Structure formats: C-alpha cells, structure tokens
Amino acid sequence: MSAVDALFQGLSVAISWPIIGWMVVGILLGIVLGALPGIGSPVAMAIVLPLTLPLEPAAAIILLVSIYSGAMYGGSLAAILLNAPGTESAAATTLDGYPMAKNGLAKNALSIATTASALNGFVGAVALVILSPVLISIVFLFGSPEYFLLAVLGISLITIVTDGSIVKGLVSGAFGAMVSTIGVATFSPSPRYTFGILELFQGINFVAALIGMFAFAEMMKLAAQKTIADEAVELGGSIVDGIKTVFKYPKTTIKSGVIGLLIGMVPGSGATTSTFVAYAEEARSVKDGMFGKGDPRGIIAPEGANNPTVSGSLVPTLSFGIPGSGSTAVLLGGILMHGLQPGPTLFGEQLNFTYAVFVSLFLGNIVILSVGYTVIPYASKLTEINTNVIIPMVVVLSFAGAYTLASSWFDVFAVLILGIFGFYMVRYNYSVIAFVLGIVLAPIAEENLLRSLSLSNGSYAVFVKEPLSLMIVIAIFTVLFGPFLKPHLSRTIDRLA
C-alpha cells in the first residue's frame, strides 16, 4: 500500500460514522474535563480507557487522542477564569490569562487561547502527515535489538521527567518495572511473584494501574485540598477582538507552534515543558512586553504550543512505543490494549489507521474552534462544578472501568491499592510518571531483549553491532549519567578557561 493510498483510506475512515462521532465526543469530553481543576488529560483518558473495550481500535484510539487534544485547550478555561489551570500545561497560561481577565478582558483572553490553540493544532496535524514518509523510513530501520534499547532509553528518561530528586524518580521507575514482572514470565511458563494467588498469574493489568495512579490518586489529592482556585472573574471583553489579536502577532503564533511540535517529539518532555519554553522564549525575545500583567502574547505563546505538542508526542508513541508524558502513557496503554503494536506495523500494513488518527487530529481542531467560540459566553459555568460532585463520579467510573477490563474484582482492588500508593507517592515527591514509564516500558524491553538474544544465539554484541544500536546505547549513557557528570564538566571547563 502506497502512502498516498493509505492517506486517502485514513481520510475515509476518519470521516466515516461512527468514527467522526467518537472524535467529536472525545473533543467535548476533553474540553469539559480539562476545564475542571484537578482532572486534566491523563485522568480523563484513564477514566475512559477501559470503556473503549467494546469499540473498534480506530474508534478507541481516535477517542483517546481527541480527549487529549480537547483537554489541552480546555485547561485554559480554568487557567484564565480561576487562575487554576485545569491541566499542568495550562499553568503558563495563568501568568497573563488571569491578569487579562481581571482587567475586564476575559472574553478576549479566552478567544485568544481558542484561536491560537486550534490554528497551531491544524499546523501540527498537517506536519505529521508531511513528516510521515520520513518516519516510515526511520521506523523500518529498527529491529528487536533497537526496540529493546529504545525501551531502555525511555525508562532512563526518568532522570529528565522527574521533578526534584533523581534518586526518587529512579526508585519510582524501578518499582513500576518490578510491578510489571508479576505474573507468568515472557517466553516461559515460570510464575513470578504470584505467592500462590491465582489472579496474579495474569499479572497486574497495566490499564488498572493507569486508572489507579492517575484517576483515583488524583481524586484523593483533590479531596485533600481545601481550595483549588481563586475567585472567578467577570466575562467582559470581546471575542472578535481576541481573534484579531492572534493574527496581530503571526510571528509569536508560528514560533510557539514550532516549539510545541519539536518539544512534543522529544521522549520525556511534554506539554508542560513546551508551553513554558514557548512562554519564556516569547518573554525573552520581546522588549516592549508587559508579561505577567495581561500581555496577549503571554497567552498566544503557551496556547499556541499546547496542541502541536499533542501532534509531536504521537511521533515517539506510535513510532517506537515510548510515551513522554502521562497522557501518552495512557494512550500507549490503549494502543496495546486494543492489540496494536507501535512501530513498523502502524507504519506498514496499518498505515491507513495511523493516517486516520492524524486526520482526526486535524478535524478535531475544527471542533475546538467552533465549540470554543460557542462556549466562551458560558465558560464560567464549567468552572462552577462542585468538586464534591466530581470526585465521587470519577471514583465510581474508575472502579466500574477497572471491573469491565476482565470482569474481575481483582482489578478493582488493584486500582484501590495503586491509587492509595500513587497518592502517597505524590505527597512525598515520588514521580508517578516515572512509575508509569516503568510499568509500561519494562514488558516491551523484556520481550525484545529475549527475542534479540534468541536471534543472536545469546550474544550481547547484537546491541552494539549496528551503528543505530550503538547510537542509542550512547544516548542511554548520556541520559543516565549526564546529570551527574554535568557539574564536574562545568567545573573542569571553568578551570581551563
């Protein structure tokens, strides 16, 4: 199948019913749940993930991607109106969005966010289609040794994604990898860490782990907070003036989109990184700015970066199975749960499926644009939903979703235990993302390690024999030991200077 044929097949899938209906539902769910402080895209996707079991793979993955994209925009609503970002990535939007709203220009700020997010979302989706031939040629260079090394590289990125102590991040990742080993061993009938419990022979369902770590743990955290937002502001200003403002700063819009797309492609980064980098770059490059006091460029930059980050993050997730954030970890869980395999399959015989996802991402931004302008006059209603209503609903959906995975109460119990564990991990600054990277990537690493050694008759030279493998090994060592060597190198360079 040629790339052009696959693109047209993907287009026909994306606009077919009920696929396009699930895309619209996903965008709407993402906007609403992203606008609620404490929910965000990982929680929203984790809640919905087990409910996608009856759906076809294309419908399920497009639904999840649409939730991800919608939540990226939805987070700006609470950020601007309440100074409480619905998603972590929207934290940069509060810096100028809330001050502009307090100045009586809430509608301006909301329409700026809507326009910048959707326009650059279009650009990001088109860029994916343009770059896909290059991705196809790269993906087919990888075999089992390279995929094992990539999985190890993804796990080693814990040192980057961890906020605070690197040691705590590594401990979290190692624990996630240990949890993934529970059950019958890969390519072997030997049970591991089952303690004679029959239910553990199938291991801990990674979807249940995702639900517990994101949805249930986040609800515990939300219940423990006394306040989650500042006082809401009045909806003043003009939607039309806000739209015009975005086109007044084309350089800012384009630059933020490029930053979001490129940072999204880097495993271990995410929308929070891209939005703050875009904001910082704009603040650095503008001499006459009033950043922090309601400068419109302080909204365009982070909002223009968030949706392209979604497009960029699909590259390592679909190509190599390496999630760079909580949202893409849940997405990868959905891909694996529906029997799909990231890598050559998605860019070979299932290329039409991949293009369908890309096209849906493009169409989803049309929905964001139309829905965004429509809800702006009523946006404050979304922020008035009581957390006492949200929390029990999410908890019930989490347990119900876990039970539907295999009609097993053991999965519900896993959600409860891992949710409590995740709550205390956050409280004591252990990275939940690192844990998720460990539990998702460790099985991929183990499977490809054993397959590689089988193909090489037990020789470990297979991991450094090819130039591509050697480059990945060097990247792993750089990521692992770079943070420890950097201070010594800096002191050495200073002495030589």
Layout of helices and strands, plus pairs?
Elements: H1 3-14, H2 19-34, H3 40-48, H4 57-82, H5 91-139, H6 144-156, H7 158-161, H8 166-180, E1 183-184, E2 191-192, H9 206-224, H10 239-248, H11 250-264, H12 271-285, H13 297-320, H14 326-337, H15 351-375, H16 379-382, H17 387-406, H18 409-427, H19 432-455, H20 467-496
Antiparallel strand pairs: 1-2
Helix pairs in contact: 1-15, 2-3, 2-4, 2-15, 3-4, 3-9, 3-14, 4-5, 4-13, 4-14, 4-15, 5-10, 5-11, 5-13, 5-15, 6-19, 6-20, 8-19, 9-14, 9-17, 9-18, 9-19, 11-12, 11-13, 12-13, 13-14, 14-19, 17-18
Summarize the structure.
The chain has 497 residues and is mainly α. It has helices at 3-14, 19-34, 40-48, 57-82, 91-139, 144-156, 158-161, 166-180, 206-224, 239-248, 250-264, 271-285, 297-320, 326-337, 351-375, 379-382, 387-406, 409-427, 432-455, 467-496, and strands at 183-184, 191-192. 73% of the residues lie in helices and 1% in strands.
Description:
With 497 residues, the protein is mainly α. It has one domain. It has 20 helices and 2 strands. Helix 2 crosses helix 15 and helix 4 packs antiparallel against helix 14. The chain starts with a helix and ends with a helix. The mean pLDDT is 83.
Count of individual domains: 1
Outline? globular
Estimated structural class: mainly alpha
User: Helix count?
Assistant: 20
The arrangement of helices and strands along the chain is HHHHHHHHEEHHHHHHHHHHHH
Helix percentage: over 70%
Largest sheet: 2 strands, antiparallel
**Average pLDDT rating:** 83
